[in-house]
Amino acid sequence: MHIHILGICGTFMGGLAALAREAGHRVTGCDAGVYPPMSDQLRALGIDLIEGFGADQLALKPDVFVVGNVVSRARQPDGTPKFPLMEAIMDSGAAYTSGPQWLAEHVLQGRHVLAVAGTHGKTTTTAMLTWILEANGLQPGFLVGGVPLNFGVSARLGQGNTFTIEADEYDTAFFDKRSKFVHYRPRTAILNNLEFDHADIFDDLAAIERQFHHLIRTVPPSGRVVSNGLEESLDRVLHQGLWSELRTFGAAVSDFTAVGEPHAFDVLNQGRPAGRVEWALSGVHNQLNALAAISAAEHVGVAPTDAARALATFENVRRRMEVRGTVARPGGDITVYDDFAHHPTAIRTTLDGLQRRLGSPRGRILAVFEPRSNTMKLGTMKSQLPWSLEAADLAFCHSGGLDWDATEALAPMGARAHVGKNIDELVAQVVSAAQPGDHIVCMSNGGFGGVHERLLKALAA
């Protein structure tokens, strides 16, 4: 089968491309504004990439066009289609489908799917769960919205019956407005947390809760739902109906709890010792992610003791507090990190985790971020930014492309906050402020204009 993927450089669609290629299909694709790590991964797989969405790609005549949710029926200011290829596909009557639908029919059918849903931590938790299964001999397939360092790729078919997948609540395609995860039919579903996000497609939190319950409806009677006991929103979801086994984690009264610091803690299963985790990760959020992964792995036969032991060798995911480089300075090196955080809660959690890991005394934390997600661009959560940045000694915001005033939103931070209208200005501000021993955390769900390398180069100069 020849498939041509529209929006191939997105983390999900890029992973799908890798799976299709591994399964023996011919894969081509197109996108605009590509950036690593997905573009690098696709080229390494030998997948032909076409820049843009030109209608001339119809001449490729694939068996089916697989359409990413970046594609829409939107028009340019001059009235021409923003995605002429999609218009040509529809006019010609050519076969097309969504990414999640193609995945469900050609990869997930007949396998034990373990799906990880939640507003935050999906990628990291999916990677943890996958590594637990791999370390215990299950040879899982997986599709992760990032690159787990233990594997070096974001997706593979695997040799066993299990398949772990990051289960996104974002919509499937312009012609299918259901959440992606309703296509996956998991036997094991992790509900990690649930907050308001994706303001471009959901009116309120209740609308997202409804989609999460649609996911629960697809879990079979012999399945397991693993839910964060600290989240009232998830309690509301569960109260709408549950037809499968429930395991909870995190709250004082839960099936799986943790005792100890996030970097070294004992796992309790219904109050009884069930393993110990000692690893390089920090932050309470990662401790909770670990409990979720351990509970899910138990459902496919991995004992919690063995799961906890496997996490000692878990190497996290690219762009999750990934050190991009250090610059030597008398009095202490300056370290530059890359992180995917883009929701206010994720920003706060990331910075809190680093603060805890560094301990005291420590160098300063400089937060460099761009409100790039659709929700942040709309300004829906701008009032939460000062709260999310409390652990930062200084904050630098890239305000390019925003319809709201970042300076006004960050005013409660006073002199700690700086705003740059472009990357050059932002880099200049950070370099001017940087001191020996500083930790510079760059946070975005996009390429951020290569700010990490530009900072390292400018600091070195």
Task: Write up this protein.
By secondary structure, the protein is of the alpha/beta class. Helices cover 31% and strands 24% of the residues. The protein contains 15 helices and 23 strands. The protein has helices spanning 11-22, 38-44, 84-92, 99-108, 122-135, 205-217, 232-239, 284-299, 304-310, 344-358, 374-378, 385-388, 406-409, 423-433, 451-460; strands spanning 2-6, 26-31, 48-51, 64-67, 96-98, 112-117, 141-143, 155-156, 162-166, 171-173, 176-179, 188-191, 224-228, 245-249, 256-261, 264-269, 272-278, 322-327, 334-339, 365-369, 394-398, 417-420, 439-443. The strands form 5 sheets. A 7-stranded mixed β-sheet has the order 8-7-9-6-12-13-14, with helices on both faces. Strand 13 (224-228), helix 7 and strand 14 form a beta-alpha-beta unit. Helix 1 runs parallel beside helix 2 (38-44) and helix 6 (205-217) packs across helix 7 (232-239). The longest helix has 16 residues, at 284-299. The protein starts with a strand and ends with a helix. The model has no long low-confidence stretch (mean pLDDT 91).
- In the sheet with the most strands, the strands line up as 8-7-9-6-12-13-14
Rg is 22 Å
- Overall structural class, as computed from helix and strand content, comes to alpha/beta
User: Termini separation (Å)?
Assistant: 51 Å
> How many strands, which pairing sense, and closed or not: the largest β-sheet?
7 strands, mixed
Low-confidence stretches: none
